[in-house]
Amino acid sequence: MTASTEHSSPLSQDDVVRKARTLVEAGAWIRQFRDRHVVIKLGGSALEEEDSVRSFLTDVIFMETVGVKPILVHGGGKSINKAVAAEGIEPRFVRGRRYTDEQTLEIAARVLAGEICEHLVDEIRSQGGRAVGLNHLTQPVLNGEPLLMTDENGEQIDLGRVGHVTGINRDVLLATCRSDTIPILPSIALDSEGGKLNVNADTAAAAVAQHLRAEKLIFVSDVPGIFLDRNDPSTLQSHLNAEQCRDLIKKGIIDSGMIPKVEASLDALAAGVKKVHLIDARIPHSLMLEIYSNRGIGTEIVL
Fold this sequence. Notes:
- It is a single chain.
- By secondary structure, this protein is an alpha/beta fold.
- It has a single domain, classed as Carbamate kinase.
- Helix content is 42%, strand content 22%.
- The chain has helices at residues 3-7, 13-33, 50-65, 77-86, 102-126, 170-178, 201-212, 242-250, 258-270, 286-291; strands at residues 37-42, 69-74, 93-94, 97-98, 131-133, 142-146, 149-150, 156-157, 162-168, 182-186, 188-190, 196-199, 216-221, 239-241, 275-280, 299-302.
- The strands form four sheets. An eight-stranded mixed beta sheet has the order 5-10-2-1-13-15-16-14, with helices on both faces. It has a four-stranded mixed beta sheet with strand order 6-9-12-11.
- The longest helix is centred in the middle third of the chain and has 25 residues, at 102-126.
- It is globular.
- The N and C termini lie far apart (54 Å).
């Protein structure tokens, strides 16, 4: 008998029954989502908190173990900002949007693919899972083109090397999933000439989900979901449809950085993704609670 076994407290019968009921409840969801693709976007301050990342990746490994095909897409804005500042580069904005020059792009690509992606891969492997980074340094998956935007006067806004995802290397992605390996994609795409583009991780994840017609698209950040009043936790909305989301945007309740996330969600739903979830990585095992229990913990959005 090991020391840890000697000093562990025995479970009461009620505890054992409660755990068994939890497993039975999870079993129904496990059967439903077996062999289905689930695209998960990790971002926000959640990437900065090691314990949250570790717990989140434990959940991702569990999902893969019970038959789901998770695909992880990540950003890293705060880490990029720190690296850019360390190089003494002053941020440049064009009509309120960040401009990405070649030097900034190289820093972003290094941080996303060379640092954050590799860290996530290493953490999954350290927990006994299988993962591989798919990016411009290994095997590119995200194809893109420059993001063209116009201002209120119809004039084109030049954002430099900012792009959006127009396609994916579907064969590579599906083959990776079939090999029981978790693909991890940083938000860097390649254009038709092989040039790198800095893309928004929310819209990149939504594009991957659309092209795969994924079962679910899950946004994991430091935000629990959508609130009617962000100062009142009781107003967290557990379920919204597309029409309700558009109405909340129109009323200004969904605003700021949540707007592109929700708009990307609606695009994904319109393209065939069945459900979108917004959850908080800081809540231990929030991913499993949202997917494998009868009562979720964040906000789910349906068409």
